[in-house]
Amino acid sequence: MNMKTCAEIGVLESVEITEMWRLETAFSDWLAEPDNLELFGEKIGLKLAESEREVGVGKFFADIHCRDVENDCVAVIENQFGQTNHDHLGKLLTYAAGLEAVTVVWIAEDFRFEHRQSMDWLNEISRPDIHFFGVEIKLRKIGDSAIAPDFVVVSEPNDWARTMRTVANLSEKDRAQYEYWTAFQDFCRSRHEGLGLNLSKPCTMDWMYFPLGHGVSGIAHGNIALRPRKNLIKAIILVDHKKNSYEHFQQLESHKEQIESNVPNLSFQWNGNPEKTIQTLSVSKDCNPSDKNDWRNQHQWLADSIARMREAVYPVVKKIANP
Q1: CA end-to-end span of the chain, whole Å?
Q2: What would the mean pLDDT of 271-283 be, rounded to a whole number?
Q3: Residue 138, SS3 per DSSP
Q4: Residue of 257, 265, 266 lying closest to 236 (CA atoms)
Q5: CA neighbours within 13 Å on the CB side: how many for 231?
């Protein structure tokens, strides 16, 4: 067997960042270039584009303002040479608030434990659609090779890496459905804080589940598998009491006039069957769920329909469950 000797194996060397960029501003200029920004985004699982340098926030200036393409939101990047400090953490939060950023990135040579902990805490307490990343930059070379940047993620949203790996391996159909429900969840959080829906995590199915209580649950259901004959979305109330589901559905249906009068603009479909363990009450809308330009309208309709159906059905369900 022909083995390589130790003399043939290069040794990875660390390089001071100032050997490549003398100033932080020079590094920011380099990172803001489209190819470099794209390369960096891939490292942390994002697609970043449309960068701007030194964007004003009051009397301060953000290093890089750009767009998180896949999440269709503002991203802000704060760069720092040396070890992280409170000054740059304060700047990061100031820029994020002033620019209404949803993706927030702090790059430094070395993250102090306290600042890594702060970034983890921000991810824990923030809305699920807001992402904080802590990234260390290292420069490497082997012998006389060119110097290469190495970005090491030290803090990221919970399950971010696992989710990104999962999404990357999805089929086209599953990816479309995952993106649809992710966008719907983001819409509900940004526009319907008062709904009080306990939405599950975005999934790759053609439905998203949320509980209502008292043996009744709800589903926001969308056929987004690009099947022309089923171009519609649905909001569905499920009655699932195992052996007694049909009896409970009949009790619910006995209040049909009261329920429908509370939501006159929705056309209910009552689907009860004694042979099935799950009964449904639904409303639907004709549309094309694969048309991303229409997603906002679709999500508006779904969110409104779910809220109105719950308001109409829940009091009756509660009365039936607690006579």
Answers
A1: 82
A2: 82
A3: strand
A4: 266
A5: 10
Query: Which segments of 99-144 does DSSP mark as H helices, in order?
Result: 113-125
Dump pLDDT digits (tens) for 28-81: 899 888 888 888 887 777 778 878 888 878 788 888 888 887 666 788 999 888
User: Within a 13 Å sphere around the CA of 108, how many CA atoms are in the beta-carbon half?
Assistant: 22
- For residue 306, what are the CA distances in angstroms to 103, 234, 251, 260, 296? 29, 9, 21, 14, 15
Q: Write down the residue that tokens 């649809």 correspond to.
A: 180
Instruction: Give the integer Cα–Cα distance in Å for 45 and 65.
Output: 18
Secondary structure element (H or E) that encloses residue 142, with its range: strand 131-142
Backbone angles phi, psi at 286, to 5 degrees: -75, 125
Question: Which pLDDT value is given to residue 168?
Answer: 63
What does 282-303 look like in DSSP terms, one character per residue? EEEEE--TT-GGGHHHHHHHHH
Q: 219 with 208: CB under 8 angstroms?
A: yes
Q: What's the CA gap between 65 and 318, in Å, rounded? A: 50
Write down the residue that tokens 């060119």 correspond to: 146
Strands (E), the chain: 12-15, 48-57, 60-68, 73-83, 103-110, 131-142, 148-155, 207-213, 216-222, 232-239, 269-271, 279-286
Can you give the pLDDT at residue 134?
92
Closest by CA position to 131, among listed 93, 164, 104 = 104
Supply the pTM of this predicted model: 0.52
d(CA 69, CA 136): 23
What is d(CA 62, CA 55) in angstroms, rounded to the nearest whole number? 5
212 near 310, Cβ under 8 Å? yes
CA atoms within 13 A on the CB side of 53: 13
User: Can you tell me the distance from the alpha carbon of 86 to that of 115, in angstroms, rounded to the nearest whole number?
Assistant: 8
State the chain's maximal CA–CA distance in angstroms: 85
| Distance, CA of 43 to CA of 158 (rounded, Å) | 16
Question: How far is Cα of residue 250 from the mean position of the Cα atoms in its chain?
Answer: 39
Nearest residue to 136 (alpha-carbon basis) of 108, 172, 164: 108
